[in-house]
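README, section 4: Worked example with a bound small molecule

Sections 1 through 3 covered apo chains. Here we extend the same pipeline to holo records, where the ligand is supplied as SMILES alongside the sequence. The molecule in this example is zinc ion. Nothing else about the input changes; the structure line simply encodes the ligand pose together with the chain.
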Amino acid sequence: MKAIAKTRPELGVEIVDVPVPKPGPDELLVKVAACGICGSDLHIYLWELGAERAIPSMPAVIGHEPAGEVVEVGKGVTGFKVGDHVALDPFGPCGRCPACASGRFNFCHSPGRLGGAFAEYAIAPVRNSWVVPKSMDMEQAAMLEPFATGLHAIEESSLAAGDSAVIEGPGPIGLCTALAARALGLSLIVITGLAADAERLALAREMGFKTVCASDRDWIDQVRAIVPEHGADAVFDAAGFLDSVRHLVKRGGEVIELGWPARDIPSAEMRSLFFHGVKIIPSRVRMPETWRRAVAMVANGAIDMKPMITHRFDLDHGVEAFELLRNRKGVKALIMPQA
Ligand SMILES: [Zn+2]
Ligand SMILES: [Zn+2]
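The generated complex, written as structure tokens:
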């Protein structure tokens, strides 16, 4: 079968031909219908920001946000059958370690990992797999993982209906966070991005959100003119760099970190967050409860992920997909292995 693999510790990926894998105990073989390209895949493509930790050996087929149909089940599998439609989580909590035992499934010590989904077929441990209704569009199902990431950031915050938030980063995770925030009933959501993100900011406005271009010299004033006088209730960092957050969030407010931090927070900034009593909350991956909610929200039409899917590529055009995202064009690109 055809697949997209990382073959060398440098920029790039390769289209390779590999055998269809066999599911082991507690594993499913999934015929991949759609698999999103994630920001972390882009780091792996560019070979930056600790990508070597995600890809300890090569060649490695990449891709970890798939949805598809179960075509084979391994020994001992319960709760899944051939023909089921599933969405897959790259992070599958073990359920037994101290973190899981204390209910912090998203900080599991030894999660089941999932990769290899930019391929016609992929192996999925059952603990990484979530059944979705057959009526759910497979493209929407492939968007559940990023949506659940944004939804979990909202769960980690103490925001309530009527509150306000600034979201730094107009990429898929920023927009998913915004959709989840709106579903919660926030009264004001401002999304910021750089000049290079112009297309993404335009889509954010089409989706009904306020935006500010953080490349403008007076961008902080622009945000402050929109949010309540003493700052937003929460700031979400979906850009990997907490920028000027002390000017944006209210005293006693919250900063929720999503994604891979791309820079150190200067101590002057940390100091002001301390004096303003701002809580810094890491929002890592998702919880089993988040999946239940995310599937229900998309299945029942409370959330529509389609506007965010701007590009679709077959496996042969995988490199083009990465180059597109590298140039910050489009929002979410899906690889469609059966196309
Ligand atoms: Zn991802
Ligand atoms: Zn665990």
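What to look for in the output: The two ends are 13 Å apart (CA to CA). The longest helix spans residues 144-156.

Section 5 describes how to batch many such records.
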